[in-house]
Amino acid sequence: MPDLLIELFSEEIPARMQARAAADLRARMTDGLVEAGLTYAGAQTFATPRRLTLAVEGLLAASPTVTEERKGPRADAPEKAIEGFLRGAGVTREELEIRDEKKGQVFYAKITRPGRPAEAIVAEVLDHVVRNFPWPKAMRWGSGSLRWVRPLQSILCILTDDAGEARIVDLEIDGIRAGNTTEGHRFMGGGRFAVSSFEDYEAKLKRDHVILDAQQRADHIWHDATSQAFAAGLEVVEDQGLLSEVAGLVEWPVVLMGQIDEDFLGLPAEVLQTSMKEHQKFFSVRNPATGRIERFITVANIESADHGATILAGNQKVLAARLSDAKFFWENDLRIAHAGMEEWIEQLSNVTFERQLGTQAARIRRIAALARDIAADVGADAGRAEQAARVAKADLSSEMVYEFPELQGLMGRYYAEAAGLPDDVAAACEEHYRPLGPSDAVPVAPVSVAVALADKLDTLTGFWAIDEKPTGSKDPFALRRAALGVIRIILDGGFRLKLDRYIDAQLLRHKISLNHAKASDDEIDTLEEVLDEIADHGVFGAAFRAVMDRLQEKENAPETEEGSLLRIVGDVVPDLSTDLLAFFHDRLKVYLRDQGLRHDVIDACLMLDGGDDLALIVARAKALGDVLETEDGVNLVQGFKRANNILSQAEEKDGVEYSFGADPKYAEVSEEKDLFAALAKAEGEIAKANAVEDFVGAMAAMAALRGPIDAFFDAVQVNTDNQVVRRNRLNLLGKIRDICLQAADLTKLEG
Amino acid sequence: MAEQTGMPRSFQEVILRLQAYWAAQGCAMMQPYDMEVGAGTFHPATTLRSLGSKPWAAAYVQPSRRPTDGRYGENPNRLQHYYQYQVLIKPSPPNLQALYLGSLEAIGINMALHDIRFVEDDWESPTLGAWGLGWEVWCDGMEVSQFTYFQQVGGHDCHPVSGELTYGLERLAMYVLGVDHVMDMPYNDPQAPIPLTYGDVFRQTEQEYSRWNFDVANTDVLLRHFEEAEAECEAILSQPEVDPKTGQRIIMAHPAYDQCIKASHVFNLLDARGVISVTERQAYIGRVRALAKKCADAFVTTEAGGFVA
């Protein structure tokens, strides 16, 4: 059985695309071969900056011949139908067979698809794969029309039989004829050479200074880097992403360690690391004793005549230029930081955050106001939270963050420390961006929490206020991530806060700034007044009404009738707020689903306490989830649903609601009396448990109803002829519904 | 010119060697375009000639201006006026990388001593409505050139594709000559009777232009120039194809493109003066791009653009 070797040799393939491309080459080629009937024993794939390689072992020499039988029309079918069948099957009239079947004589055709040699199939599949390759970005070159990631220079495609004899697969793609040759390293290779098998290919590449396997290159780099660092009593800062990128930039890695000029060692470690990594693809080498970055590792692609001396000197020089920029930024920034960062904060009033939502400065003012509101709920000092929010984004104006946006927050912390601000304020500068992703830690320090929540809620309410909500896969402002961040911060910290109030307040702040230009001073004052009232009333609606009532008595009050600005804001804020809270609920369900909590269980608990205290919702849902794991719980739900169904049907039929007036004196059997007693007990226990947020207790009290409810249904018929008894029993079912609803809305449960 | 060996001794020798090398490869030696541009790509020998089906090969030095990069001649490698060396070959030859490496050898870079790398860098010019794929070329970790296969220019697909090489001459020469501050770089041969450094030639102009660019340029006048250039560009392109005086079909793609270049440079000056906000910025870039596209549309209907009546 032959082996297949394919190499697609091109100009330099971007490092970040190599691994994916190698995997795609294997998947697409082997899928195509198998589909055409060529099975194989194994396949390996490789990538270097200049080549994608696929080696397939134990390929069938030819696809098997396939015979298939196809049933045709009846023998007496119209001529047209028979001709059509012949065409479709690709056989002649003479080759047809007639068989007797129940319905009469029927034509059968035997279709034989002869096997094809591997060579023909490989040529066909490879042509298709190359022409349709899924590069993230592809290009044309010269006068051709083929698209590849960079110009494709040559194709090597050979089949090697068991005797070791290699045949070139006859194939030409856009003027490139497949052959059996390739070349090695760009500078250390010895020109083109022919190969006869994968082993031969790999060995000759190595001879010509190409390590084919990216993992081997990465291992080699890491081994040399760590041992050179170790020899100097230092350690390499691990960076897997950088390692695989660098392994994709070289065919023959040569590790060189260089010095960082003494002048730059005072820069923050993160600045050194980021600058060296982003600009130069250098690894950082750290002194384990001090934590300082003292040297760098660069990986060259050549064993140079002077053992890397020129290369290292050049790299050192470039690094010095880069770091003097960084040092220049750092020193300039520190000057402004020492002066209290006011200059940066002022500059932010010239920076647009979003066209409608205004400047960064306006955004910061809103965040500071909200952080102040939230502070008490998360155990932070209100003044500190506000102060932290005011400076948390100041570093956006710094030169360092302009140069390295990924250092935002971290630089803020350094600069806040330099400005002599309290530690918790400095920490908030860095931590308020967290969590940055699903696996990033949430902030825990109270001031950081207050600012982080305020920042995210301001973003969410802002985009809600201008109707830029995420749709489908589109979420350009990462609002889902922001909502998840809020959820995780609240739940991880176990914070008890009414989200509604803060959403309302912040929506209103957005509405005030969005309308600032066109509203009258009186209107703005009125809305500001509502803002103050929210703190007292807890939600927008009541606050708004209170202010409106006061306006009645005022002379020259702003307009409040239909269509007026105040009325429009009064109408729209509650709608937006409800909608945003629902968005939080959706995110909450997604988040908890990943932790194994069913979405219907959450639904059953969502609105019991107003729906805006996330910690409470989750505590209740977890208790319900647990009780549903028990036999009592499962059966209670069945009993509850039975009661609820009977009740709903009767209510619909009779047009009344059976929710009041069940009286034990009409109870006929003991099971009925027992249920009355059990419900009375459960009601008391659930109320007591709810009052102290003992949801496990509430669920247990509810689950205890399982026995009495089951016994009741076994013993009595609800819809009896005696109307008094029937009504009493329906009211009793109504009581089950009402009492259970104190613990959880079981109607929301599925199944 | 006799084959030069060893290391170049001056900035101008680096240029002369590149000229000799690319002339030997068959490129037409063009001269700098006589207008202020931000990069060698703006020269019509690149922008317009990369369009259409006619083969083309040109190389030239292009003085380039980036008003925001002015540092009063003090920064070791940042200048508001600098030189680019530009090569454009259409269709891109299959050995363009090898040709390019040959040019590095021609200016004294020994391939056995240095680490030359092609690092992914996709090029895009929002003002020209152009993009291409390629690399920045690193020599020992320093970017010495930009290497691009043009895919689209002025909104038109490039077919055939041009290969474009851009060398930042000061930076490259500083590296080859081992100079740390651009102003210290020998401009002519240090052994010449009157040796001149880059600073002798350009320090004063860097100061003068930095001051003018940042603080003095009259923004009202510049804004008017922008509007005027835009209007003129459109007016030129709205003329009938056939010149009523000569009776010939004369489409004025180049004069129109001059106005596009002018608008682009005026925009850069306004940007340096800090009078363009982030949102306006996009709008200005869009307006220049619209002009570039119209010029490209016009050029492809001319003979040089491959139009066949």
From TrEMBL, chain A:
Domain DALR anticodon binding: 640-743
GO CC, alphabetical: cytosol
Record localization: Cytoplasm
Catalytic activity line of the entry: tRNA(Gly) + glycine + ATP = glycyl-tRNA(Gly) + AMP + diphosphate
InterPro entries: DALR_anticod-bd (IPR008909), Gly-tRNA-synth_bsu (IPR015944), Gly-tRNA-synth_heterodimer (IPR006194)
One BP annotation, GO: glycyl-tRNA aminoacylation
Key words of the record: Aminoacyl-tRNA synthetase, ATP-binding, Cytoplasm, Ligase, Nucleotide-binding, Protein biosynthesis
GO MF annotation terms: arginine-tRNA ligase activity; ATP binding; glycine-tRNA ligase activity
Keyword Protein biosynthesis: yes
Keyword RNA-binding appears in the UniProt entry: no
E.C. numbers: 6.1.1.14
Record Pfam families: DALR_1 (PF05746), tRNA_synt_2f (PF02092)
Broad EC category: ligase
Subunit structure of this chain's protein: Tetramer of two alpha and two beta subunits.
Record-stated family: Belongs to the class-II aminoacyl-tRNA synthetase family.
Protein name as it appears in the record: Glycine--tRNA ligase beta subunit
From TrEMBL, chain B:
Single GO cellular component term: cytosol
Domain of life: Bacteria
Compartment(s) where it occurs, according to its Swiss-Prot or TrEMBL record: Cytoplasm
Record key words, sorted: Aminoacyl-tRNA synthetase, ATP-binding, Cytoplasm, Ligase, Nucleotide-binding, Protein biosynthesis
Enzyme class (EC, first level): ligase
Transport in keyword set: no
Gene Ontology MF term list: ATP binding; glycine-tRNA ligase activity
Catalytic activity: tRNA(Gly) + glycine + ATP = glycyl-tRNA(Gly) + AMP + diphosphate
SUPFAM superfamilies: Class II aaRS and biotin synthetases
Biological processes per GO annotation: glycyl-tRNA aminoacylation
Keyword Plastid part of the UniProt annotation: no
CDD domains to which the protein is assigned, alphabetical: GlyRS_alpha_core
EC annotation from Swiss-Prot or TrEMBL: 6.1.1.14
Stored HAMAP family: Gly_tRNA_synth_alpha
Assembly: Tetramer of two alpha and two beta subunits.
Family named by the database record: Belongs to the class-II aminoacyl-tRNA synthetase family.
Protein name as catalogued: Glycine--tRNA ligase alpha subunit
